Amino acid sequence: MLKWALIFFIVAIVAGVFGFGNISAAATDIARILFFIFIILFAISLVTSLLKPRRK
Fold first, then answer.
1. Cα separations (Å) of 30 from 8, 16, 24, 33, 34?
2. Exposed, middle or buried: residue 6 (CB in 10 Å: 0-12, 13-18, 19+)?
3. Using CA atoms, how far apart are residues 9 and 1, in angstroms rounded to an integer?
4. For residue 17, what are the contacts with CB-CB under 8 A and spacing of at least 6?
5. Does residue 35 contact residue 27 with C-beta atoms inside 8 Å?
6. Which pick of 35, 49, 51, 56 has the fewest CB atoms within 10 Å?
7. Which one-letter DSSP state was computed for residue 37?
């Protein structure tokens, strides 16, 4: 349990550093761009898998 408490403490410290600086705005923009890129890639792979003939 002490190990998990230490891990969560470190994660909270890192999140606090990112949250209190200007890095959070940049991280939000990067996350938004990556989200749309992955949605587009998912749609492309879905369409190609539906159009590809299936083997038996």
1. 24, 18, 10, 5, 6
2. exposed
3. 12
4. 23
5. no
6. 56
7. H
Tell me: pLDDT of 56 over 70.
no
Pairwise CA distance, residues 34 & 16, whole Å = 23
Q: In sequence order, what are the residues at sequence separation of 6 or more whose Cβ sits closer than 8 angstroms to the Cβ of residue 23?
A: 17
pLDDT digits (tens, 9 = 90+) for 1-21: 778 888 888 888 887 777 766
Question: 18, 24 in Cβ contact below 8 A?
Answer: yes
Q: In 3D, which of 29, 27, 31 has the Cα closest to residue 19?
A: 27
